[in-house]
Each structure stands twice: as C-alpha cells, then as structure tokens.
C-alpha cells in the first residue's frame, strides 16, 4: 500500500516563467539568429539530462570555476545543437553571458497544487528530494509548498546527490516508511528513476514533453494529475 509520494524539485514541481525556451529564442534574436521557442523544448530536455548526470558524478559546488564553466558551456552547446543551430564557440560564450545576466522567475507547474491537494486529502505523506547546494526552504515557503511537505531532503544537507542511495534512504528514515510504500516522481530517468528504484522505491518518470528515451517498461506520467490513479493501481509493474 502506498503511503507517501516524494518529488524531485526542478522541472518536476518548479519551472521558470517565462519558459527557458522563450528566453533562448529571445537571446538568439538579439544576436540576429531567428529560431522559434518550440525549437528548444526538446533541446533543453536533452541538455538537462547531460547537466544532471554531470552533477551526479561530482556536484558542481565541489568543482573549480573553470570546471563549472565547462559544464555550462556544454549544456548551452547541446541546447543550440538540438535546436538546429551550430554551436560555434563564440556564439555559446555570448549566450552564456546573456544567461548570466538573466533572472528567471521560479514558478510551480499548473498541476502541482491540485495534485498535491488531492494526495494530501488522501492522507499520503509528501516530500521533496532534490540535488541542490543551498537551502530551498525559503523557495518552498514562497511557492506555498511548505504546508504540503512532511520532509525535505537535499544534497546540501546529506552530502550525497541523486542517484546515490543515501539521499533516498535519508528520506525514508525521516518518513519512517519502507521503500516499497513510497512513490518517487522525477523528470530524469538516470538520476531519479534509477536512483529511487535502486533502494526499492516505486519510481515514476514525469515526462511532460513526451521526449524521454527511457525504456518502455519505465512507469511514466505526463502530468502530476495522473499520480492519483497510480496510487490506486496495485497491478502496476514497478521497475
């Protein structure tokens, strides 16, 4: 029986307004390059997979400034290439300078509060497990998520990043629940799904854009509204 649902934070609960693809298109336009925002929706998904995998290998907070710059350079290069634009080094550098000076507003996806409200109504424990190197409680307060959450576990607090088992195990200890009674939802297959599955959690991939190349046996949802049905489906073949 499912007794808790834990979530990844960024690109699962929290996104950006305006969306990053709109900023990418706008910045390129300022450089005389025309590309619609739609060209970058899948591009950011692919680039984020690279970014989160790199961060899991060794957190950016523990790398040199030069190493961090290299990761962001590669991330932006992937965005451009996947968006159909040749990632010339000078162009990538100009884009990174523009991104550095851009303040993105962090906002909840539209399905977050309704989905959490229903899950909470059903007396499920809710929590967040996130690879962040700072205190996210002020952000959770600002976004009105705090009242929904029983636990918040971060890589800053534990010293471990997903997919390391310890960050998931710490969440289970705080919730005082066995792994097979917990669903974990995240947008990254390698980091979220495989990490949660490795400790025995019921892992769910949130594939909002339908772009994930995760294997077909991976349990996935397109939005958070679908979680309630999963909680009820005892026959789900969890991987």
UniProtKB/TrEMBL annotation:
GO molecular function: metal ion binding; phosphatase activity
Cofactor(s) of this protein: Mg(2+)
Pfam families (alphabetical): Hydrolase (PF00702)
Known EC number: 3.1.3.-
Class of this enzyme: hydrolase
Gene3D superfamilies the record matches: HAD superfamily/HAD-like, Putative phosphatase, domain 2
Domain of life: Bacteria
Keywords: Hydrolase, Magnesium, Metal-binding
Coiled-coil residue spans: none
InterPro entries: HAD-like_hydrolase (IPR051400), HAD-like_sf (IPR036412), HAD-SF_hydro_IA (IPR006439), HAD_sf (IPR023214), PGP-like_dom2 (IPR023198)
A biological-process GO annotation: small molecule metabolic process
NCBIfam families documented for this protein: HAD-SF-IA-v1
Protein name from the UniProt record: HAD family hydrolase
Origin species: Dehalogenimonas sp. 4OHTPN
């Amino acid at each position: 029986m499912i007794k808790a649902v834990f979530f990844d934070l960024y690109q699962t609960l929290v996104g950006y307004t305006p969306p990053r693809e709109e900023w990418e298109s706008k910045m390129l336009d300022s450089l005389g390059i025309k590309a619609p925002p739609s060209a970058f929706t899948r591009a950011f998904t692919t680039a984020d997979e690279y970014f989160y995998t790199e961060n899991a290998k060794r957190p950016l907070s523990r790398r040199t400034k030069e190493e961090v710059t290299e990761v962001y350079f590669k991330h932006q290069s992937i965005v451009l290439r996947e968006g159909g634009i040749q990632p010339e080094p000078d162009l990538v550098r100009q884009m990174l300078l523009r991104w550095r000076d851009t303040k993105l507003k962090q906002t909840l996806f539209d399905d977050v509060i309704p989905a959490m409200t229903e899950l909470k109504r059903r007396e499920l424990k809710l929590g967040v497990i996130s690879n962040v190197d700072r205190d996210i409680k002020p952000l959770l307060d600002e976004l009105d998520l705090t009242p929904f959450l029983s636990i918040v576990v971060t890589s800053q607090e534990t010293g471990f990043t997903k997919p390391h088992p310890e960050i998931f195990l710490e969440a289970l200890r705080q919730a005082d629940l066995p792994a097979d009674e917990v669903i974990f939802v995240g947008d990254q297959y390698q980091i979220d799904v495989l990490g949660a599955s490795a400790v025995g959690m019921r892992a769910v991939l949130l594939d909002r854009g339908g772009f994930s190349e995760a294997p077909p046996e991976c349990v996935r949802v397109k939005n958070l509204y679908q979680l309630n049905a999963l909680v009820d489906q005892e026959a789900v073949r969890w991987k």
